[in-house]
Amino acid sequence: MTPAAPKKEEASPEYQSHEMERLVNQLLEESAAAGLAFTQSSRLRVNMGNIYYEQKKYTLAVKMYRMALDQTPNTHKDIQYRIMRNIGNALLRLGRYQDAAQSYEAVIEIKVDHQTCYNLVVCYYVLGQLEKTKSILVKMLIVHHYDSDDENDDIEGDNSAALRNDGLRVELCNRQSHAFKYILTSARLIAPVLGNSFVEGYDCLIGMLKDQQYIALANEMEMDKALQHLHRQDFTQAILLLKTFERKEKDLKARAATNLSYLYFLEGDHANAEKHAELAVKTNSYNPSALVNHGNCFYIKIGHLYELLGNYNQAIKWLEIVNTRVVHDAGILAMLGNLHVKLGDEPKALHYCYESHKVYPTNMDIISWLGAFHVKSEVYAKAMPYFELASKIKPADVKWQLMVASCYRRTGQYKLALAKYKAILSEHPENIECLRYLVHMCSSLRREEELERYEQLLREAEKSALRGSTGDIRILAARGEKVESGSSVNYKQQHNSQTLLEDRSIHDTERAHTLELVYSFLPAETTTMSRMPTEGRNDNEDWPELGDDLLPM
């Protein structure tokens, strides 16, 4: 005969929990009537609490644990200690951090152990009581190490394998491993917020670990400090810290070399990337990260060789293999963009340069190329954000601000352009290019008073530049123009001489540097601004032209 199926309410977890609690209470009553020892009834309460804890019914678990604690006399400190730790764990799960902290504090008054101290550090961290987290970490550090005897460290002879696999020795090693894990996790948690800066917090904790002879953990914290610098994109400090591991033990040396290889790879320094990848592989030939770094370096080398041979398609093929394995690598994307520029495939070049910019937005070469590409396409509104970003990255370099102002001028935003030129002049009062554009704009906008003032400033700036530049004097002398000390230079004459000055741009170091920077990705046939298309330009524009250049240099 088939048994009847259980009722729906009897199959629910709530019904089963209540039924279990009823059976436990009945068993406790029978135990009390039989005169059983307190430990049996207390153990039943603890087991019931453990069941509720596993079912994530933490409130009921706390209730059972407290009932068990009330039944445990003060003579059984070890049992009280374990029950109070269970209460703290359940309260922590409930998010009652203050109550959990009080329970853990009572526990460590009886016995200090690493797990309880770690949980207490978490509670104080959430509550924002950082000084207490530091004091608890100190207590963790002074707990007895689970180190094996020194005599057994170098075991030799026929019984060495048996002694090394001894149960007690294995247990001590496991306890030491867990203790190190709790200490290291606690230190990593509070180090970034312990001092006025994360560096101060790490230095404080590293000093504490070294004082208590936790040398291995101190080294781990130094490695973590270097990684924190990487997360904050402070690559210089990260490299300096990682290089200090080259003089330390084998495992740390290999890990540092792996990180350095990847860091140099991201920065495009493939020679150093390969050097440290080889060091990491030599130290540990089974290190997967080191092997990946080493393989990527070989792919880059092959791609670069094809590029040198002029076989850009093969170079792209090998670099795309790297790109599929190292996703979102700004350096690889930039190299692919450069190769597509050389092939004349501007849409793909734009795609790769844009993707590289999204990953690493402060690469000035990429910013320059993207801005120049949109200028070449006469989409000045899209070029402007790149030049604005460049001016923020290099605020002392005036040419980027002049490019922003020129974009305003080309998009017809004359008021914004004039305001930008005035702002540039306030920071660089002797910049001749800025003064020239202010003169042109004030003349076009018929601002006579401002025009006279800027013309006077321009004449003074030009005379000052001529006095300090023997190269310009030679050019004027070659044209038969007499330049005397203290004499004024006619602005129109100086403007007319601009073409000659631009033809001999080799003497103009700032202009040459800017052209090289802005067009470093472009093929040779497009590396001068005079070759930009002028189609779509307003031929009726009544501003005086400054040569064939669009952007001031």
UniProtKB/TrEMBL annotation:
Acidic residues bias locations: 541-553
UniProt keyword terms in alphabetical order: TPR repeat
Pfam families to which the protein is assigned, alphabetical: TPR_12 (PF13424), TPR_16 (PF13432), TPR_6 (PF13174), TPR_8 (PF13181)
Keyword Thylakoid: no
InterPro entries: TPR-like_helical_dom_sf (IPR011990), TPR_rpt (IPR019734)
TPR-type repeats, residues: 42-75, 81-114
Gene3D superfamilies in alphabetical order: Tetratricopeptide repeat domain (1.25.40.10)
Xref: SMART domains: TPR (SM00028)
Protein name, as recorded: Bardet-Biedl syndrome 4
Species assigned in the record: Riccia sorocarpa
